């Protein structure tokens, strides 16, 4: 019997596509102008886009398309945060594109998993999901190494603080965050995750790189 190579082919194609998309930004902006404008971002997100405070996200290496989308969400009130909303309100569309390509150009953080005891559970959910609970594999959208899919506007999750990731999953589950739009994909999936699932996944993606 010949082995089923379809999953390998799909993952290989996804990896090549994601790498190509990351190599050439999908957003037209100026890295130099973005660096100058991003000075106000460093207080929370770190000088190189990697925050030292786990409640604030690392944004270095994040796709520019996703950063622009989230800045617009904060500016338009789709996402609420007392710190981010006023900052986003001061940015023009051009500012957003410039800041986005600047942070996209920076190297993403490389960290260890938050809790080694939950690696097996987190990896199983990320890579295989849980069919019984109706939870798909996270890698289907976020990629085998957590680099995301810029063309589909699925964010990179690798090296993200577990504390931040866990909060976003809880917010999606409760409906406090609705920036997944009409698809409701993150709200639907997160609502099926147990508290233990969320902690395990958040810990695992922190160590992805």
Keywords:
mainly alpha; Cytochrome Bc1 Complex, Chain D, domain 2; 11 helices; 2 domains; single chain; globular; 50% helix
Structure description:
The chain has 209 residues and is mainly alpha-helical. The protein folds into two domains: 25-104, Cytochrome c-like domain (Cytochrome Bc1 Complex, Chain D, domain 2, Orthogonal Bundle); 116-206, Orthogonal Bundle (Cytochrome Bc1 Complex, Chain D, domain 2). The chain has helices at residues 6-23, 31-37, 42-45, 64-76, 84-89, 93-104, 119-128, 139-142, 162-174, 185-190, 195-206. The longest helix is centred in the first third of the chain and has 18 residues, at 6-23. It is built from eleven helices and no strands. Residues 1-22 have low confidence and may be disordered.
Our count of domains comes out at 2
Low-confidence stretches: 1-22
The assigned structural class equals mainly alpha
3D shape: globular
CATH classification class of the largest domain: Mainly Alpha
**Sheet having the most strands:** none
Report the average pLDDT across residues. Answer: 90
Alpha-carbon distance between the two ends: 35 Å
Helix/strand order: HHHHHHHHHHH
Can you identify the CATH superfamily of the largest domain?
Answer: Cytochrome c-like domain
CATH topology of the largest domain: Cytochrome Bc1 Complex, Chain D, domain 2
What portion of the residues fall into strands of 2 or more residues? under 5%
Q: Output the radius of gyration.
A: 17 Å
**Structure summary, number of beta strands:** 0
Per CATH, which architecture of the largest domain? Orthogonal Bundle
Q: How many H/I helical runs?
A: 11
Helix content: 40-55%
